[in-house]
Amino acid sequence: QVHLVESGGGLVQAGGSLRLSCAASGRTSSRYGMNWFRQAPGKEREFVADINWSGSSTRYADSVKGRFTISRDNAKNMGFLQMNSVKPEDTAIYYCHAGGPFTDSWGRGTQVTVSS
After folding, report:
1. pLDDT tens, residue by residue, 13-37
2. Are 33 and 51 in contact (CB under 8 A)?
């Protein structure tokens, strides 16, 4: 299995930027897609973005398209979510997920709070 740890969350003003990181360890030799999800208070967890193993394909939720960018560095076993022009509605716990033939792992999340 792959063990994931998120970092980079915090408090940011609306319109600002934040970069989340996801560090992977364990069975990182297996190929896996990497995803970001988020969960706001009182709401269900929702998809934010994903990226395939090679980084050649990405997808975004409509709510973040054009503002967030997902990327990864397989040599360093890292994934990233660059968040620009953040809005108060982006406030949530952000989770990293790794999914593949031999992997289905979640991190514990990192809190992002956007003040208006």
Report:
1. 999 999 999 999 988 777 899 999 9
2. yes
What DSSP assignment string belongs to 23-72?
A: EEEESTTS--EEEEEEE-TTS--EEEEEE-TTS--EEE-TTTTTTEEEEE
Q: Are 84 and 67 in contact (CB under 8 A)?
A: yes
Residue 57 is which amino acid?
S
CA dihedral 28, 46, 9, 84 (to 10 degrees): 100
| pLDDT tens, residue by residue, 34-55 | 999 999 999 999 999 999 999 9
